[in-house]
Amino acid sequence: MDSKPAGADEQARAQERSNVGKRRLLGIDWGTSNRRAYLVDGGGACLASRADDQGLLAARPHFGASLAALLAAMDIAPGVPVVASGMVGSAQGWRQTPYLDIGVPLLELPAHLTRVDEADENDDLGGRSVLLVPGYSQHERGADGHVRIDVMRGEEMQLLGALMLRTHGGDGSNGDGWYVLPGTHSKWVRLEGGAIRHIATFMTGELFATLGKQGTLAPLMEGAAGEESPESDAAFDAGVDEARRRAPLSNALFGVRARVVTGAMPAAHTRAFVSGLLIGAELVAALDLAGHDPGTVTSVCTPALHRHYARAAGRLGVTLQALDPDRVYRAALGFFLRHIDPTYQRSQP
Fold first, then answer.
1. Out of the domains of life, which is the source (predicted)?
2. How far apart are CA 44 and CA 91, in angstroms?
3. What whole-number percentage of the chain has pLDDT above 90?
4. Torsions phi, psi of 150, nearest 5?
């Protein structure tokens, strides 16, 4: 019976760690309007990055050519694998990737990638394939029999990265808890045991942008001060307090105009008040779903957005802790690099 030399297993593991550390991966957060690319090593360290306006709308239908231009601009070597997430995997994107059920653990994402080969696209992708990350869907039946349906595409990378950072952060966390991912469509997600247990999406960012561009509130919001000040903070707080009173949102929004035309609120405070009202309404509804005691909620967003959400949450008795979205995304890419087949990028004959 053959026996391995003493220490052979440890040497093999050390060699594998060394090999992973030397490998590279290009991750692309490919959204509707914008695209961000990160070249990372096995530890998730960013070696290069690039952002442009070649989102789904601009790149369609020539996704392969658009990616080839990005690879050339970043001087990405032919052997570097590419993983893309976001709306590029939607029905309107490069190739539709089926949604995973929320019961599929986040750590299993590398086993569910959709492959696009160079031969399919007739573009110079350096002999590689591109792997598209799937999103998640929820069909949850409540105690009242109502089925709550929701989806996410792109946010799964933020959740995976957040899970990596929290479970390897040295504080003993298992990553369980509530997460908020603010943006155009804000996501509230409950993680348990490394899997998604609940998704709730709020069109907070889209509503704020739409109200500021068209409709009866638009002139007031356009003329309102956008910079932060004690006065704007107070107006924001007043909006959160209005949301806490649980008035129907459409009624509360008309009340903004009524406040201005009657002189109850300066027009300059409109933008901050509406922001507080919308974020407050989102938080009130999310806390209803969470059972009013979500513990510390983890936010993954820009510092500016976190400031607003943390301020509103504080008025409702909830604490938010922040994770940097770039760091979170790089952590997810590092996980992919360690767990995908290193030979996958070779196009099949």
1. Bacteria
2. 30
3. 77
4. -155, 165
Q: How confident is the model at residue 122 (pLDDT cuts 50, 70, 90)?
A: low
Burial track 2-14 (b if 16+ CB lie within 10 A, e otherwise): eeeeeeeeeeeee
What does pTM read for this prediction?
0.88
pLDDT at 18: 45
Q: Tell me how far apart the alpha carbons of residues 277 and 228 are, in angstroms, rounded to a whole number.
A: 16
Give the structural domain span for 297: 203-318
Q: Are 17 and 41 in contact (CB under 8 A)?
A: no
| 285 in the same domain as 173 | no
In a domain, 2, yes or no: no
Asked if 207 and 180 sit in the same domain, the reply is no
- What is d(CA 271, CA 11) in angstroms, rounded to the nearest whole number? 61
Any domain includes 7: no
Please tell me the distance from the alpha carbon of residue 141 to that of residue 86, in angstroms, as a whole number. 27
pLDDT in the model for residue 172: 72
DSSP class per residue in 83-134: EEESGGGSTTSSS--PPEETTS-GGGGGGGPEEEEHHHHTS--TT-EEEEPP
